[in-house]
Amino acid sequence: MNSKTVNKIGIDADAILKKDIEFNNIGADKAATDAANNYSSAFMMVVAIIGIALAVGIAVGIYTVRDVSRGIASIVAPMQALGAGDLTAQVPHQARRPKSARWRIRCRCSRKR
Predict the structure, then answer these.
(1) Dihedral through CA 15, CA 16, CA 20, CA 25, nearest 10?
(2) pLDDT digits (tens, 9 = 90+) for 54-96
(3) b/e map of 8-26 (b: 16 or more CB within 10 Å)?
(4) Which of the residues 22, 55, 62, 101 could staple to 97 if both were Cys, CB 3.0 to 4.6 A apart?
């Protein structure tokens, strides 16, 4: 009985287990390949985002420096002319005071009266 029934069940179970192990190995290989692909694409995406952020940061920095430099240069040239004795030089960018400053000046004037 043992050799005819139990051995046959064991052999059938071994075949099923071998198929199951083979199926698991195929799934594991596919999962490993998918994980490697996902990692490489995520890495490239992070590198691209960092590159874009770096480029935008550099562009904003250059724009800011150029804008400030132009503003300073537009004031420095007339000031140098004034320093040289040319009293006809006009200084651009004589901005109005902000509203809050005008309000404070009005309040001070009204207190003095």
Answers:
(1) 10
(2) 999 999 999 999 988 888 888 888 888 888 888 887 776 556 6
(3) eeeeeeeeeeeeeeeeeee
(4) 101
